[in-house]
Every structure is written in structure tokens, then in C-alpha cells.
């Protein structure tokens, strides 16, 4: 055979790869050669990706629908099976579609494995989903590893503040005089501030509470701690004592606000030898559970999108709330706390109460997609039967 003829056949057959003895298409060049030998309906069966290769086509293989690599964690549901013939080779193909019915087509059975795709969070360095009613962990990823948690730390500060307030109106209305130039300076800092303090001005505990909760004001959180315990150092010791009382073995605090000591030292509020608060995702969820159980008002307060406090707008950065970018009505998210520092990354402790289900608490740490992955984690938790009422 002439070399030109050999090249012709090489091009014609070069689009095929052999897998399990079956010639599989890698391009559309051979499309016309695919013929249907038989087709039958099968019981709806879940599959997920078995190989890094593989693609979904229309039945005649004249059009590629999608590569499996673009759907690494998708569960595919097969409802039909066909035997397709290409030349002298035959192969078994499945008609599959994803749960949203947005991607559908035929794929060689050898690229898939029976069963639903394992649930994963690709971005979070640590995460947990907890049944708020029972305290049981439903799903986790590195959930027992202590990590920096940034302003998520404030849920402990809020707990101890509400414990000191004890529901008494006079405590809510108690006025805290700001005499610390460090806190005033912090409040005006471009990277650490937000809710501005005036030197020698008096703020009510209630104003500081909302500034710390909604606006995630670091200076307000420290001021609350000083009111609760008399000094910043005493309050941090109280935070650690409370963690110990709850038997949180993966929690250690050096800051009432969640700022690291590398930032706090310039304002005169560095404490301890460690640089950052370090708490595991599971222990964050447990703190949140204690907070919500003892002081359910945080679920009402946590839904506030923004509030004017002492003439300043305090904006809640929880973007899973109604009216926000990542809101989903079915999840009914009503809290709880965001956090970010360059060291901790984006952190979020969320909670929602879907109808007919137990309330769920989720924590994602160091997750650039904290809201979308929280939604996925909540959906997964709700799919589990043990989360049902």
C-alpha cells in the first residue's frame, strides 16, 4: 500500500482508542459509521464518573454533548441502554442525564461506575454540616483540624455578651465609654475598621452588639469583651474557659474579634503567643449551636440585611439572605456569620431551617466560594434521611 493510502487510513482510524476491547470515539470523524443494533429501557440507575476521560454524545455520535471532565462530581441517571456497532466492533452505551435534565445523551458504559457521585467541596479547606437538633455531624471535611477562622470568632464573643446581658433591658442600654485611642484608630483603619468610634463617646451595649454582629466591627467586638470582663485579656481568657467548659478540644482564642495578633499589635491589643484564633470546623459548629440554642434571638438578628446604628449603616455580608445574590428560597437561611482575613481566607458559618427538616448548621473555612459551597453543603445535608423530622 502506498504511503499516501496509509496516511489516509491513519487519519480515519486515528480518532479511535481502544478501551476494554471496544473501539471508542475521540472525535466526530467516524460518526457516520455508528449504527444502532438494539435499544431497551432500563430501570433508572445512578452512575458517576469512573475515568478522567469520556464524553456524552447524541446517539449517532454526530455531536458531542459534553466531556465528563466538565462534570467531575455529577450523578448521572441512566434510563436506556443500547448496543451500538462501529465497523466490526460493538459496544454497550447508556442514555444518561443529570438531575437537572440540562445535560443528556449517550455514553459508553465503561466510562461510568454505578452509584451516586460522592459529595465533595472542592474549595473549602475544612467544612462540616451538623444537625442543629441532635448535634450530630452529617458530613465533614477535615472538620477536626484547627484553623484560623477570622471574624467567625465573633460568635463566641456574641455568646458571652448575650450571657452577660441576660435578657435585661438595663444591660442592653448600658453605655460603654470609648477611652482607647487604639480602638478609635482601629475603627478608622482601611483594612481592620468599619464602624467608626469617637474618642470618649458612649455607645450602648445594643449598638455595639449590632455593629459587631452585622457590620463585623472588630473594635466593637473588643469593646464588648472589655465590658463583659473588664479587660481584653480577661475576656479572651473567658473565651478559652468557655471553650474548655464545652469540651472543645480544637479551639484556642487570642482575639475577641478574629483579627490576628500581627494586625492587633499596632493598635495595642495583641494577646498571647499564637498569632490567630484557631478553631476546627466542628467546634465552630458547636459554638454556633450553643449560641442559637441559648439565645435564639440571633436567628432574628441574623436576618437583618442592614441597620443604621448611631448614624452609621451596618451591612450584613451574608449573601445567602433573602434579596441577596446567592439566596435560595428552599434553604431558608437566617444566619449566621461571615469572616475573612488573608490568613484565614473566606469563612462562613451558616444556618437554615428547611420545611420538614431539622435545622442545619454549616461551616466552611478558607473557601473562596463560601456561599455557593454552603448552599451545596446544605442541600446535601437535607438529602440525608437523618435530617428529616
Automatic annotation (TrEMBL):
One of its GO terms (molecular function) is serine-type D-Ala-D-Ala carboxypeptidase activity. GO terms for biological process: cell wall organization; peptidoglycan biosynthetic process; proteolysis; regulation of cell shape. Residues 122-367 form the Peptidase S11 D-alanyl-D-alanine carboxypeptidase A N-terminal domain. The keyword Calcium does not apply. Keywords: Carboxypeptidase, Cell shape, Cell wall biogenesis/degradation, Hydrolase, Peptidoglycan synthesis, Protease, Signal. It holds the Pfam family Peptidase_S11. InterPro entries: Beta-lactam/transpept-like (IPR012338), Peptidase_S11 (IPR018044), Peptidase_S11_N (IPR001967). Residues 1-31 form the signal peptide. Substrate binds at residue 337. The active site is at residues 151, 154, 216. The keyword Phosphoprotein does not apply. SUPFAM superfamilies: beta-lactamase/transpeptidase-like. Belongs to the peptidase S11 family. This is D-alanyl-D-alanine carboxypeptidase. It comes from Levilactobacillus suantsaiihabitans.
Amino acid at each position: 500500500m502506498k504511503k499516501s493510502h496509509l496516511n489516509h487510513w491513519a487519519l480515519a482510524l486515528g480518532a479511535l482508542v481502544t478501551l476494554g476491547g471496544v473501539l471508542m470515539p475521540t472525535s466526530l470523524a467516524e460518526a457516520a459509521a455508528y449504527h444502532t443494533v438494539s435499544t431497551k429501557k432500563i430501570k433508572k440507575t445512578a452512575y458517576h464518573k469512573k475515568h478522567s476521560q469520556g464524553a456524552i454524545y447524541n446517539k449517532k455520535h454526530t455531536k458531542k454533548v459534553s466531556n465528563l471532565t466538565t462534570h467531575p462530581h455529577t450523578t448521572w441517571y441512566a434510563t436506556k441502554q443500547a448496543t451500538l456497532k462501529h465497523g466490526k466492533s460493538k459496544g454497550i452505551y447508556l442514555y444518561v442525564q443529570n438531575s437537572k435534565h440540562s445535560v443528556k445523551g449517550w455514553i459508553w458504559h465503561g466510562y461510568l461506575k454505578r452509584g451516586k457521585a460522592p459529595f465533595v467541596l472542592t474549595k473549602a479547606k475544612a467544612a462540616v454540616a451538623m444537625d442543629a437538633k441532635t448535634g450530630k455531624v452529617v458530613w465533614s471535611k477535615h472538620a477536626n483540624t484547627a484553623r484560623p477562622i477570622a471574624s467567625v470568632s465573633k460568635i463566641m464573643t456574641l455568646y458571652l455578651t448575650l450571657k452577660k446581658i441576660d435578657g435585661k433591658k438595663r444591660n442592653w442600654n448600658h453605655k460603654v465609654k470609648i477611652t482607647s485611642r487604639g480602638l478609635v484608630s482601629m475603627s478608622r483603619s482601611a483594612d481592620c475598621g468599619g464602624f467608626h468610634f469617637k474618642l470618649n463617646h458612649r455607645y450602648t451595649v445594643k449598638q455595639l452588639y449590632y455593629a459587631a454582629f452585622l457590620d463585623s466591627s472588630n473594635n466593637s467586638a473588643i469593646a464588648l469583651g472589655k465590658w463583659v470582663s473588664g479587660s481584653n485579656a480577661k475576656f479572651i481568657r473567658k473565651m478559652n474557659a468557655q471553650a474548655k467548659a464545652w469540651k472543645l478540644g480544637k479551639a484556642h482564642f487570642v482575639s475577641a474579634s478574629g483579627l490576628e495578633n500581627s494586625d492587633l499589635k499596632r493598635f495595642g491589643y495583641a494577646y498571647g503567643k499564637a498569632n490567630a484564633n484557631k478553631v476546627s470546623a466542628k467546634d465552630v459548629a458547636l459554638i454556633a449551636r450553643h449560641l442559637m440554642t441559648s439565645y435564639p434571638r440571633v436567628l432574628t438578628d441574623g436576618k437583618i440585611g442592614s441597620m443604621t446604628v448611631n448614624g452609621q449603616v451596618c451591612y450584613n455580608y451574608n449573601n445567602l439572605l433573602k434579596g441577596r445574590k446567592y439566596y435560595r428560597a428552599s434553604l431558608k437561611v437566617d444566619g449566621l456569620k461571615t469572616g475573612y482575613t488573608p490568613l484565614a481566607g473566606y469563612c462562613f458559618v451558616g444556618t437554615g431551617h428547611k420545611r420538614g427538616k431539622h435545622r442545619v448548621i454549616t461551616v466552611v473555612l478558607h473557601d473562596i466560594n463560601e456561599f455557593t459551597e454552603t448552599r451545596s453543603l446544605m442541600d446535601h445535608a437535607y438529602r440525608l434521611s437523618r435530617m428529616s423530622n
